[in-house]
Design goal:
Two copies of one chain form a homodimer. The first copy, chain A, is mainly alpha-helical. Chain A is about 65% helix and about 0% strand. The structure holds a DNA duplex.
Amino acid sequence: MKRDEILAAAACVFAQHGFRGSTTRRIADAAGVNEITLFRQFGSKEALIREAMQHMTQSVGLTALPKVPLDPESELTAWSESFMQHLRLRSSIIRKTMSEVEERPEMSESASYVPRQASNELCLYLTALKREGTAGEDFDPKTAAAMLMGSIFADAMGRDMMPDVYPQPQDEAAHMYSRLLLQAIGVENGSRKTTPKNTRRTKQLSP
Amino acid sequence: MKRDEILAAAACVFAQHGFRGSTTRRIADAAGVNEITLFRQFGSKEALIREAMQHMTQSVGLTALPKVPLDPESELTAWSESFMQHLRLRSSIIRKTMSEVEERPEMSESASYVPRQASNELCLYLTALKREGTAGEDFDPKTAAAMLMGSIFADAMGRDMMPDVYPQPQDEAAHMYSRLLLQAIGVENGSRKTTPKNTRRTKQLSP
DNA sequence: CCGGGATGCAAGTAGTCACTTACTTACACA
DNA sequence: TGTGTAAGTAAGTGACTACTTGCATCCCGG
């Protein structure tokens, strides 16, 4: 069965051309399949693309954040990097989806799944920092989470078009955002400030 | 001359349906004009929409940031609110543009004009804060600017779809982001509130 | 060897798309 | 009154769109 190849091809074409630009012919060509096969397998273009979107959101694995924070800077940085890479790899499809959701609201569920998940996890982590006294007491975890995720999201979406607006170099951006956020919520800077890489070892111990 | 009405209508239709969805018939109807008039005036649909985009970016006035900072929290909050309102009012067209730029790179210039401008101004302001000693010395203005703008951007783009992910209430969000950013760059909190720098406990004590 | 499900090919349908041609109306100005 | 300009009407072009029908082909299990 070529189902999965078709779904992958549909997602790919959609990422390049959006819904209206994803003609059945283009999808069929991309999948190396006859156009009629699409209709036999999925019934209509709309059903095909809907299924392709849902099929995408499975199989996404984000780096987990530990339940109990040990080394906030390295842990948060690792998470931010993973989140940023996830967004960057999918930037085309995210842009297209954000644009189409207004005309096709049924896409919003699969579109918002990953960011919701990420937001929840980040909130929990920041709350833990607060509870343990590692962070200050006068900040709102949800606002802080929205801020870090928003920075990463905007960077992943906008850097292609305006590289000069975002921090350089690109692969330290996630680290810089994370550090700034920790400053904002009153997390002491651990030891030395300018060693991003070496001291980042702990990933997670036990959930 | 109905030129301006046509341009406005084109921008409106584009915001709703994107490029491919902006049929000349729809634009003509929205403008209350015969379809042929579009072609006589602008030559082609592509030229029409290009001109409509450029026509939009004129006539945007963002709240200015003072050259010399006096009251960072209120100044930055006012600016953030204005920026956020600007983005929110144009969220549809921004989403559509972000999505189309990949297929039509010539749109990127008019698309990136406003955020570039805003980024410059914010950077200057943050640099002034640093220079005057109001802020700390160990932060990068560009990163901080990207962070605040990114937070506001993501909020303006995402709140419709996932209201529970962003801080409540909506009309204080800009203020909350601004305050968090000022904390991040070490701007003292004017009045009372806990001091961010020295009085924090060192991380990690096991309870 | 046979039957059935998945696939392909050829052809076609009804609709929409951007854009054109040829002609007409309304009005401003000299 | 004549002329030019902006607008409208009517009709159509060829290309593309999603989707259908009918029939041939392939492969795989019993």
